Amino acid sequence: MWASYKSHSYSPGVVSGTLLYLPLLVFEYVGWIQLGGVSLWTATLVFLIGGSYPFWSALYHRQSGSAAADATADDSSPRLP
User: Fold this and answer.
1) Distance, CA of 14 to CA of 2 (rounded, Å)
2) Do the Cβ atoms of 1 and 18 come closer than 8 Å?
3) What distance in Å separates the CA atoms of residue 1 and residue 56, rounded to the nearest whole number?
4) DSSP string over 5-73
5) Residue 71, φ and ψ in degrees, nearest 5
6) Model-level pTM?
């Protein structure tokens, strides 16, 4: 979803994936809690950790991208003949 948003482009896979996976996510979480497979606390914690992945990923990629730009700007690196 983030890539489609950033590129301002329509992606049918994102739309169908969102419409398919979000209801499935709710169905599975409610099912596991009702069956006693996980506690509400565990389900909430797992949801928060899983939901935070896009933020951590974007932060990591932003940092590694700036480090790569810094590395290419350094002209003191040895060159191959």
Assistant:
1) 10
2) yes
3) 15
4) HHHT---HHHHHHHHHHHHHHHHHHHHHHHHTSS-HHHHHHHHHHHHTHHHHHHHHHHHHHHHHHHHHH
5) -70, -35
6) 0.53
Instruction: Of 62, 30, 35, 60, give the one whose Cα is nearest residue 47.
Output: 30
pLDDT single digits (tens) 30-47: 999 999 999 999 999 998
Name the strand (E) or helix (H) holding 81.
Answer: none
Alpha-carbon distance 61 to 37, whole Å? 35
pLDDT tens digits, 3-38: 676 777 777 888 888 888 889 988 998 999 999 999
